[in-house]
Design goal:
It comes from Rhizophagus irregularis (strain DAOM 181602 / DAOM 197198 / MUCL 43194). Its main location: secreted. There is one protein chain. The chain has 143 residues and is α/β, with parallel strands linked by helices. The protein has helices spanning 19-34, 68-76, 91-100, and strands at residues 2-10, 41-49, 59-65, 108-114. It starts with a strand and ends in a 29-residue tail after the last strand.
């Protein structure tokens, strides 16, 4: 069996006290999956997101690799920074980047999302939201 496993994670400043724990958990999953070879051959990738005001680091995409060490090296350099003044984050942008910017190729595809705030938009009941009408690029959860 061959698997594509993509981690999508909120990398904003609000994740500051949690990001190292989240990265440790991701590494443990990747190490465990790597030990399942040859029964399961895994490619791992990462898509970190922040918020719309955080260009040029709004999205961080690390495409799939078979190398556990290469993945862990990349992940170790992902900081928790940015995020603006409101609570909601660019969740939809992060998920969209994972779907459209990653080179998915195996039939078994797993996406694990880690975050501490919902996407922008009043439908998510966010009292403090710089984008109450939703994603400024027009992304919706249905997409």
């Amino acid at each position: 069996m061959e698997v594509d496993l993509c981690f999508v994670m909120d990398c904003t400043g609000s994740m500051g006290e949690y990001i190292e724990g989240a990265k440790d958990a991701i590494e443990k999953v990747v190490e465990y999956m790597a030990k399942l070879e040859p029964a399961i051959k895994i490619r791992v990738g990462f898509c970190g997101y922040r918020d719309h005001c955080d260009n040029p680091i709004r999205l961080q995409v690390f495409d799939f690799t078979y190398s556990c060490e290469e993945f862990k090296n990349y992940l170790s350099n992902v900081p928790a920074t940015g995020g603006g003044g409101d609570g909601p984050e660019d969740v939809l942008g992060g998920l969209n980047a994972a779907v459209t910017k990653m080179t998915w190729r195996n039939t078994t595809r797993v996406l694990l999302h880690i975050g501490d705030y919902p996407p922008h938009g009043h439908q998510f009941d966010n009292p403090e939201d710089d984008y109450p009408d939703g994603d400024p690029y027009g992304l919706t959860e249905e997409q």
